[in-house]
């Protein structure tokens, strides 16, 4: 079947679907599925805009609301994960996944579904070490910290995914798995994104959690976005025994949405011709959700997942064939995901703007139904209960103050096989949303798999677009020309949570004498919170 994969959509659904239609006509093909790798921006109204972690100048309604209202319908089944520029209040309604509009499905914090026999998994958000071991405690209205921490990956989601035993065909993450750049044309990547050099050479670029999942799941395809550059890699996995067949993952990172043509790729994926055309639950994943339900945490206290260290009575939550069979029997062997989309918020009306609309914490009927069907904890209901209980004791304000003062530096190491040296890895929260040219012409650059890796990558990774066999990448780079505040401040690299003053984060990207290049620094994937007034949402 024909699967289209898109990078950061940034809410431009009309443009994305128009591009898909153009490709279908140009190549005389019919697309079966569209996958989006985060920064989807399912913004329904002005309140949703206030829950998106970007400065006010980037808060644009875009076109998702037309699909939410029913004015338009996605022309192809669309499955997406969350990134770090999202209407977090909207996606938070669906922690286990669900429909955000007819024919547009969100995978949740982490999830696995099936389509035509193809197993598709994903994890939403990006990795930040100081929030990794916390529960999902955030709820609107967010403060300046929780509006960001709400999209940070948590260890419980990684733990759940690591319980999967059956093969995964496609996996999506927003940020790149750390180390994946060593399996592609690293030289060309650094030519296009020279400001990555220090992190690539120190092996700290990207997500160690995603890297851990890549090594464990060994999917056939892995798609990412986030860094606004197209990059291909081929990773041959080590086998654990002589009997185990070798596995390899074809990795592709996509650029952001238009005007960059490289935000979208079309591939051929083997599927079950006898399978139906409906999106389906994955029985093993449902069984894992049931098995790990007791581990759900809605507090901001850091905690470890169970591991085989003598401190836990149980650490293996993978499921048996019997447990999977029970799920199938519960569903009467009908795995079709119900089309139970429900409006849970007022839709944006261009003729009646409501700039002062405030976000509210909403319990989505889809989640209520899902949890009731499978005996799971409704995370938002639990958060609401905890909020009500603590409000009487005045604990909410204390927790917010503690969150604002916390740097996470005193955390214990990750609980299982995550290389602790990478917990402070460079994984930018904020990627520039606008671009007005760059400081060098990279129109002829490409980032292909390294010649050191097997050539079958390019031949098996089918691309119906007119591109070189090695998946040459057009490199219209993501640039920010509206970053004057950073230039005035010396171009210091700012993360989502600001580091202590004595720790310099200036990027030295100049000549041998250490003279830095302002233009190079402007192109770094810096935080877009350079000024406090831009952080405010009122």
From TrEMBL:
Residues 385-395, 485-510 have a biased composition (Basic and acidic residues). Residues 396-405, 431-442 have a biased composition (Acidic residues). Its main location: nucleus. Signal peptide: none annotated. InterPro entries: Calcineurin-like_PHP, DBR1_C, Dbr1_N, Metallo-depent_PP-like. Belongs to the lariat debranching enzyme family. This is DBR1 enzyme. The lineage of its organism: Eukaryota, Metazoa, Chordata, Craniata, Vertebrata.
């Amino acid at each position: 079947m024909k699967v289209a994969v898109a990078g950061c959509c940034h809410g431009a659904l009309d443009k994305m679907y128009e591009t898909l239609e153009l490709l279908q006509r140009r190549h005389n093909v019919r697309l079966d599925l569209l996958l989006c790798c985060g920064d989807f921006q399912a913004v329904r109204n002005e309140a949703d805009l206030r829950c998106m972690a970007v400065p006010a100048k980037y808060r644009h309604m875009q076109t998702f609301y037309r699909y939410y209202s029913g004015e338009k319908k996605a022309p192809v089944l669309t499955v997406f994960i969350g990134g770090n520029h999202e209407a977090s209040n909207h996606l938070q309604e669906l922690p286990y996944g669900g429909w955000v509009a007819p024919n547009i499905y969100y995978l949740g914090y982490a999830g696995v579904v099936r389509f035509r026999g193809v197993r598709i998994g994903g994890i939403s958000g990006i990795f930040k070490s100081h929030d990794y071991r916390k529960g999902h405690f955030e709820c609107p209205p967010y403060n300046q910290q929780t509006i960001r921490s709400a999209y940070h990956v948590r260890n419980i989601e990684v733990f759940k995914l690591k319980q999967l035993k059956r093969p995964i065909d496609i996996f999506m993450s927003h940020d790149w798995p750390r180390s994946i750049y060593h399996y592609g044309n690293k030289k060309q990547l650094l030519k296009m994104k020279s400001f990555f050099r220090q992190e690539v050479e120190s092996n700290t670029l990207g997500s160690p959690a995603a890297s851990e999942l890549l090594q464990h799941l060994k999917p056939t395809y892995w798609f990412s976005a986030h860094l606004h550059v197209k990059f291909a890699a081929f990773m041959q996995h080590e086998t654990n025994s002589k009997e185990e067949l070798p596995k390899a993952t074809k990795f592709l990172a996509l650029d952001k949405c238009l005007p960059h043509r490289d935000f979208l790729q079309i591939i051929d994926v083997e599927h079950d011709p006898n399978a139906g055309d409906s999106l389906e639950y994955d029985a093993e994943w449902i069984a894992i959700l049931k098995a790990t339900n007791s581990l759900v945490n809605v507090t901001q206290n850091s905690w470890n997942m169970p591991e085989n260290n003598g401190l836990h009575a149980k650490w293996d939550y993978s499921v048996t064939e019997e447990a999977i069979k029970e799920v199938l029997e519960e569903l009467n062997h009908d795995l079709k995901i119900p089309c139970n989309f429900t409006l849970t918020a007022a839709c944006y009306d261009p003729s009646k703007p409501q700039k002062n609309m405030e976000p509210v914490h909403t319990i989505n009927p889809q989640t209520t139904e899902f949890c009731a069907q499978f005996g799971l904890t409704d995370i938002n209901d639990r958060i609401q209960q905890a909020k009500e209980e603590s409000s009487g004791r005045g604990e909410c304000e204390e927790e917010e103050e503690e969150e604002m003062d916390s740097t996470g530096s005193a955390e214990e190491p990750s609980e299982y096989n995550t290389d602790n040296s990478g917990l402070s890895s460079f994984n930018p929260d904020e990627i520039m949303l606008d671009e007005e040219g760059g400081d060098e012409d990279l129109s002829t650059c490409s980032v292909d798999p390294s010649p050191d890796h097997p050539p079958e990558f390019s031949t098996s990774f089918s691309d119906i677009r007119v591109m070189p066999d090695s998946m040459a990448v057009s490199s219209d780079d993501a640039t920010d020309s509206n970053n004057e505040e950073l230039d005035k401040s010396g171009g210091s690299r700012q993360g989502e949570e600001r580091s202590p003053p004595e720790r310099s984060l200036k990027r030295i990207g100049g000549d041998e004498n250490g003279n830095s290049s302002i233009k190079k620094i402007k192109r770094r994937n810096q935080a877009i919170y350079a000024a406090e007034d831009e952080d405010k949402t009122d």
